[in-house]
C-alpha cells in the first residue's frame, strides 16, 4: 500500500547522494543529480508528498537553477530563514521560527501526505531534534570527491532501520525508518 493511500503524513528527509556521500558538489553543484534523476524516476515519491520544507541555502541554489529542467511538484514550499527577502516570492512561504514550529506548519499544509525536508542544515536540525520519521536516499552512480556531505560531523550517531531498496535505471532508492 502506498503512503498516499494511507495518508500517514510522515516527515521524510529526502536526498540525492553521490556514492561517496555528497549531496552537492564543490560550489554547491547540483547538475550531476539531474543527469540521473527526474521527477519521473520514482513518481510515487512525488505523489506521496504534500509539502516541502527547505532552508534558505537550498532555496538560493534552486533559484540559480530555475532555468534547468528540475520540475518537481511536491506541494507547498516553505523556506526557513532568519531574514526573509524584501521582495516576496509568490511560489514559497518564508518562515522565521523554531525548527519544530516550522515542521508543524509545513506538515499541516501537507494535507495528510508526507512532508519532505530538503537541504543540509535544516535536515540535520530536524534529525537532531527527533522530528524525522524516514530518510529516503537516491544513491547516484558517481563519485564527486568533494562538496556538501550528507550530514555534518556534529550530528553524531542516529540509528536507522532499512525497509525498502528499489532500482530505477541507474538510481538506487534506499529508505530507512529513523529509530526513536
Ligand atoms: N542532494 C540533494 O538532494 C539536495 C537537496 C537539497 C539541497 N541540497 C544542497 O544542500 C545545500 C544547502 O544546504 P545548506 O547547508 O545551505 O542548508 P539549508 O538547510 O538549505 O539552509 C540553511 C539556511 O536555512 C536557514 N535556517 C536554518 N535553520 C533555521 C532556523 N532554525 N531558523 C531560521 N532560519 C534557519 C538559514 O538561512 P538564513 O541565513 O537566511 O537565516 C541557514 O543559513 C546546497 O548545496 C544544496 O544544493 C542537496
From TrEMBL:
Start and end residues of each Bacterial bifunctional deaminase-reductase C-terminal domain: 10-150
UniProt cross-references to Pfam families, sorted A to Z: RibD_C
InterPro entries on file: DHFR-like_dom_sf, RibDG_C, Riboflavin_Biosynth_HTPR
Example of a GO biological process term: riboflavin biosynthetic process
A single GO molecular function term of this UniProt record: 5-amino-6-(5-phosphoribosylamino)uracil reductase activity
Stretches assigned to coiled coil: none
Protein name, as recorded: Dihydrofolate reductase
The organism's taxonomic lineage, starting at the top: Bacteria, Bacillati, Actinomycetota, Actinomycetes, Micromonosporales
Amino acid at each position: 500500500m502506498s503512503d498516499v493511500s494511507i495518508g500517514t503524513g510522515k516527515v521524510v528527509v529526502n536526498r540525492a547522494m553521490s556514492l561517496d556521500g555528497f549531496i552537492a558538489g564543490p560550489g554547491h553543484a547540483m547538475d550531476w543529480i539531474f543527469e540521473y534523476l527526474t521527477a519521473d524516476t520514482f513518481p510515487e515519491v512525488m505523489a506521496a508528498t504534500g509539502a516541502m520544507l527547505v532552508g534558505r541555502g537550498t532555496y538560493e541554489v534552486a533559484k540559480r537553477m530555475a532555468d534547468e529542467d528540475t520540475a518537481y511538484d511536491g506541494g507547498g514550499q516553505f523556506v526557513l530563514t532568519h531574514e526573509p527577502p524584501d521582495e516576496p516570492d509568490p511560489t514559497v512561504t518564508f518562515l522565521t521560527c523554531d525548527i519544530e514550529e516550522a515542521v508543524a506548519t509545513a506538515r499541516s499544509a501537507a494535507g495528510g501526505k508526507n512532508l519532505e525536508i530538503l537541504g543540509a542544515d535544516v535536515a540535520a536540525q530536524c534529525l537532531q531534534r527527533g522530528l524525522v520519521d524516514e530518510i529516503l536516499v537516491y544513491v547516484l552512480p558517481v563519485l564527486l570527491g568533494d562538496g556538501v556531505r550528507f550530514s555534518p560531523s556534529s550530528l553524531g550517531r542516529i540509528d536507522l532501520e532499512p525497509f525498502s531498496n528499489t532500482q530505477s535505471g541507474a538510481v538506487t532508492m534506499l529508505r530507512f525508518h529513523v529509530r526513536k
